[in-house]
Amino acid sequence: MPRLSEMGWRWRILLALALLSALLIPWTGDDYLVKLATRILIFALAASALDLVLGLGGLVSFGHAAFLGLGAYVVGIMFLHDFEGTGFLGLAPSQDIFVQFLLAALVAGGFALATGAVCLRTRGVAFIMITLAFAQMLFFFFVSLRRYNGEDGIALWNRSRGGWLELEDQRTFYYFVLACLVLFLVFAARLYHSRFGRVVRGSKDNDRRMRALGFPTYRYRLTAYLLSAVVTSIAGVLLANATYFVGPAYLSWHMSGQLIVMVVLGGIGTLFGPVLGAALFILLEEFLPDVLDLFAAGAGEYWMLLLGPLLVIVALFARRGLLGVLVGTGR
Amino acid sequence: MDLLLLLQQTLNGLQLGVMLFLMAAGLTLIFGIMDLINLAHGSFYMLGAYLTAWTMGLVDAFLPAIALALLITAAVGFLVEVTALRRLYGRDHLYQVLATFGLILFFNEGLKLLFGPQPIFLQPPAWLSGQVPLFGAPYPVIRLAIIAVGLASALLLWWLIGHTRLGMLIRAGADDREMVQALGVDIARLFGLIFALGAALAALAGAMAGPVLAVRIGMGEDILILAFVVIVIGGIGSIRGAFLGALLVGLVDTYGRAMLPDLLAMFLERTVADAAGASIASMAIYILMALVLAFRPRGLLPARS
Amino acid sequence: MSEEVLRAVDLTRRFGGVIACDRVSLALRRGEIHALIGPNGAGKTTFLNLLSGELAADSGRILLCGRDITRLPTHRRARLGLARSFQITSILPGMSVLENVSLAIQAHAGSSFRFFADAGRDPALNEPASELLARVGLRECAGLPAARLAHGQKRVLELAMALAGDPEVLLLDEPLAGLGPEEGRRMVELLAGLRPRTTMLLVEHDMDAVFRLADRVTVLVYGRVIASGDPDGIRRDPEVRSAYLGEEEGG
C-alpha cells in the first residue's frame, strides 16, 4: 500500500475526482441515488474494517456479520426502549448516535475479545469455522429473543439523533456516513505503515519469525481483530439508521460472506479495494436483476445464478480483485 | 423428569447426530487430506434431498430412488472438484471460501429455478411411515431407520478407511502425498474420488432428512454450520472425532431444546424460563464448542499429524 | 574466568516414547562460539527449540545471565536477549529487506502498540537497521522485497535480523545449510567477525567451519552429551570418533 505522498499524479487526480463526485451526489436531488450511495458507503466502511483482519492480518474471519448486527441491534434496542418509555437494564435508553457508537463499540468489542481469545489460538480452516460458528450463535440468539421481536426484527420510526446534525435529512445523513468512511480510511492508511500495522503484517507473513524476534503476536492479532470488530459495529449503527430496520438477517452468515466477497472483489489488502468492491457488489445486486429481466422476463430473480460462477472465476483467476485488474501490476 | 421423554429425546438426538456425522465425515476428510474448506458441502446435502424427491417421481421406489440420487450427487461432486476446486488446493483459504460461497449461491438459485421456491414434503414409503411402540409409546419408524442407516454408514466408513487399499491411500495421502505418488497412484484421481465419496455421504443425509424435515432451498447451510461445529469439537481431519462430535452435538442440541425451559422453570418464572431456555438452547452447542476449544484447542480426538 | 551467559541444566524432552533430549547440560561463556555437533536425529534442533522456547522442556532448567527463563514464552526470551536463526530460512518475504531488519530493531525499541506514526520513516528504526545491513553487506539490497534475494542473501538477512538489539546469545541452526562454497566462506567470516561481542551456540554439519569457528565443542548423540571440550580434544576423543567423526573421516 503506497503512502499518499508516494502516489503518482494520476492517482491523486483520480482520488480527488472520486471524492468530488462523492461530495456532489446529494446535489443531484435524486433521492434514490443518494440512498443507494449511502448504502454503498456503509458497506464500504464495513468491508474496509473487515480488511483489517483479512488483508492486514491474513485472518479469514467468516463471522463479521456478528459485529455489524451488534451495532445495528444497539440502535434497534435503544429505539424500542425509548419508544416504550422503558429502561434497558435499569438505564435510560439513548437515541444519541454518538452514545450508540460508544455502546456498539463496547458490546462488539467485548464480543470480539471473548470470541477472538478462542479463535486466535487456531489458524487456517479452524479459524474460519469458529468465527462462523460464533456469529451463528449470535444469530440464533437474536432469532430466539422474543423481547426484541425475534425473527421479525425491529422497525425504526426515526433515525438516531446526531446533536445539531439533522440525520433525518437524507443529505445530511449521507455526508455523515461519508465523513465516517473518510475518517476511517485515513486511519487505516496510517495504521498500515505504523509500528502496530507492521507487526500485524509481519505476523501474517511469518508468525514464528515474529515471535522469535520478540513480538507477542497473539496480542497484536487480537487487537487488530478488536479494532476491526469495533469499526464494523459502527457500520452496523449506520446501517440500521439507513434502512430504518434491524433484524437477525444482519447477523446471518450470508452477510459475513458478502462482506468477504466485497473485500476480495475489490482487492484485498488495499486501501480502496474494499470500497470499490462494496460499490461493485451493491450495484450488481441493484441492477443485475433489471439487466437480466431485459433479456428474459422474470430472469432477474435468479441473478445469483450468475453471481455464483462469477465468484468462482474471481477466486480462480483474478486474485488481486478489481483494483488489481485496474492497476495492472502489484500494489 | 419423565424417563420416557428422556429416552425419546435420546433417540432424536442420536438421529440428528448420525445425520451430522454423514455431513461431517466427508468434510473432515476433505479438510484433513486436501486442506480445503468447502462451504458448498451443504449444497450436496440439499442436492441429495431434491434429487431424491425427483427420482422418487421417476422410479417410484424409495431405495432405488435414493441410490440414484446418491450417484448423481457423487458425479456432481466429482465434476465440481475437477472443474473448479482442484485449482484451489494449496491456495489461500480465502479463495476457497470465495469460490465455494459462489457455488452455494449457484446451487441455491439453480435448484430454485428447477424445483420452485416452495418447500417439498417427501413422502416416505408405507413401510417407513408408520410408528412402532417403543418403551410403551409410539415412535416414528423413519427416525429409527435413519439411526440404523447412519450407524451402518459409520461402520462401513470405518472398515473402508481402516481395512481397504483405498483407505490406506487416504490415510497415507493425508501424511505424505509424494509417497502415495511414488506408489504409482494418480493422486488427482484419488482426491476426486474422496470428494465424490464425501458428496455422496452428504447426499445420503439429505435424502434421509427429506421425509423428516422439508426439502427446501438453503437447507444445507444450517446443517453445514452444525457440521463445522462437529468437526471443530472432534478435531479437524479425524473421522473418529467427527463421530464423537456429531453424537455430542446431536444430543446436546436435542436435550437443550427439549429440557432447558423446564429445567430453568424450577428456578425462574415460567415465561422467563421459556424465553431464556429457548435462547440458551439455541446457543448450547456453540458454548460446548467454545468450552472444548478452551481446554482442547485441537479438538477431542485430533488427527495424528 | 569469564562469566556464563546461558546455562542449560538437565534439559529433557520426550516425543511419545522417544527421548529427543536426555538431561542435556551446557554452559555458554561470554564471547565464545560454542559448537553443538552430532549425527542427524541427535536432538540438536530440539535442544535449540527448548532453549528458544518453541518447545517446552519436560524437565530441567534454563538460565539466561543467571535468570531462570525455563517457563518464559519465546517472545519474552527474545526480549531478554536470546536471538536465533532457523534451519529453514525464516524471514518476512512480503516486506523489503530494510523493513525486515527494521522490524527486528522495533522489537527491542519500545512499545509497538503505536497506531498512527509512520514506522517506515522513523529514523530511530531505520538508521540502526541500515547500519546492520551495511555490517553484513546487504546495504545495496535494502529496498528489494526480501522474497527476491538469493538464498545465500536470505540467510545473511536472517542473521542480520537476529543481530538486531545486540543479543546476549545467538542460537544458529545450520547457518551454512544450502550455501555454496563462496557464500559459505563469507558466512564463516561474518560469524568470526561477530566475536567477541556476540556469544553464539552454533549447530552445524560443516566440520571445517565448526573447527575454524568454535572455541568449544559439545557432541550430542541420541539426545545425550557424549563429549564436551576444546576442538582439539574433541577431535582426538575416541568415543566421538567412533560415534560420529569416525564414520565421516573413515569413509
Produce a short descriptive summary:
The complex is a heterotrimer of chains A (331), B (305) and C (251). Chain B is an all-alpha fold and 305 residues long.
Biggest sheet record of chain B: 2 strands, antiparallel
- Helical amount of chain B: over 70%
| Chain pair sharing the greatest interface | A-B, 44 and 47 residues
Cα separation of the termini of chain A? 6 Å
* Oligomerization category of the chains in this entry: heterotrimer
Tell me the span between the first and last alpha carbons of chain B: 44 Å
Give me the secondary-structure category of chain B: mainly alpha
Shape designation of chain A:
globular
Task: Tell me the series of helices and strands of chain B, N- to C-terminal.
Answer: HHHHHEEHHHHHHH
| The first-level CATH class name of chain B | Mainly Alpha
Rg of chain B, Cα atoms, Å: 20 Å
Low-confidence stretches of chain A: none
How many extended strands of chain B? 2
Mean pLDDT of chain A: 92
* Rg from Cα of chain A: 20 Å
How many helices of chain B does DSSP assign?
Answer: 12
Strand content of chain B: under 5%
Strand order of the largest sheet of chain B: 1-2
Low-confidence stretches of chain B: none
Structural features, described:
The complex is a heterotrimer of chains A (331), B (305) and C (251). With 331 residues, chain A is mainly alpha-helical. Chain A has a domain at 30-252. Helix content of chain A is 70%, strand content 1%. Chain A is built from 13 helices and two strands, in the order H-H-H-H-H-E-H-H-H-H-E-H-H-H-H. Chain A has helices at residues 9-24, 31-56, 65-84, 97-119, 124-143, 170-193, 195-205, 207-213, 217-243, 253-266, 273-295, 304-317, 321-327; strands at residues 154-155, 245-246. In chain A, helix 2 (31-56) packs across helix 10 and helix 6 (170-193) packs across helix 7 (195-205). Chain B has 305 residues and is mostly helical. Helix content of chain B is 77%, strand content 3%. Chain B contains twelve helices and two strands, in the order αααααββααααααα. In chain B, strands 1-2 form a two-stranded antiparallel sheet. In chain B, helix 2 (41-59) runs antiparallel to helix 3 (62-83), helix 2 runs parallel beside helix 4 and helix 3 (62-83) packs across helix 9. In chain B, 50% of the residues are buried. Chain C is of the alpha/beta class. In chain C, strand 1 (4-15) and strand 2 form a beta hairpin. Chains in contact: A-B, A-C. The interface between A and B is large, with 44 and 47 residues.
